[in-house]
């Protein structure tokens, strides 16, 4: 299916306007694949015809469906594994000491897609019940896509999805087979929460999160939009909290709000001036 340059530009503009994400030239090959199911559902013959319908404005909900289809929702359980080991080794022991009086942790997975990262975090705590007995672990997952947030809430995954990143023992312990797929057990589902949120908006709980994860999301934003997103993410952090990016991402040259943790490569902390401002506030 050939897609005109004008149609590609309109779709790229729509995605960026709604989410801040860029549809760069090297990603435009995804258009046909990403939109094929929506075209079939609506009986639309081509992407150019889809653009005509969008421009005419007769189906106001269609633009949202198009944006949902264009978002990259690639994720899996314990993705890349090493970041979770890093949190367990470097961040959580220190937080357990620092929060000993309140016995409460708040964690935000920003751009959580269909929820695998959030449930992976929940499993980390659930698999050490003695260590975290009496603690309140608040794990929030957010995404700009209403469809993936709703799916994350159900906690239902296909056989292929539930096996990506999970061993057989974990899969059987934390998921149960249902007619709709493999569903996270009730205790796991109740230990997390999800909501729709755009990274360019103010964070859900400013200054409260002990750990903020935003992995493999910001790389789709242009420089100016990425800087704004970094400001929002930093604003969510507690003064002594940690921030985590994807393996191929960095804060260097992107923001002045965050700096690398000297003791834990792969984790970031608030810059000294921001830490001081938070403590005074």
TrEMBL record:
Pfam family for this entry, one: CheR
Superkingdom of the organism of origin: Bacteria
SMART domains xref list: MeTrc
InterPro entries the UniProt entry points to: Bact_Chemotaxis_MeTrfase (IPR050903), CheR_C (IPR022642), CheR_MeTrfase (IPR000780), SAM-dependent_MTases_sf (IPR029063)
Annotated Gene3D superfamilies: Vaccinia Virus protein VP39 (3.40.50.150)
Domain CheR-type methyltransferase per the UniProt entry, residue ranges: 1-275
The protein, known as: Protein-glutamate O-methyltransferase CheR
Source organism phylogeny: Bacteria, Pseudomonadati, Pseudomonadota, Alphaproteobacteria, Sphingomonadales
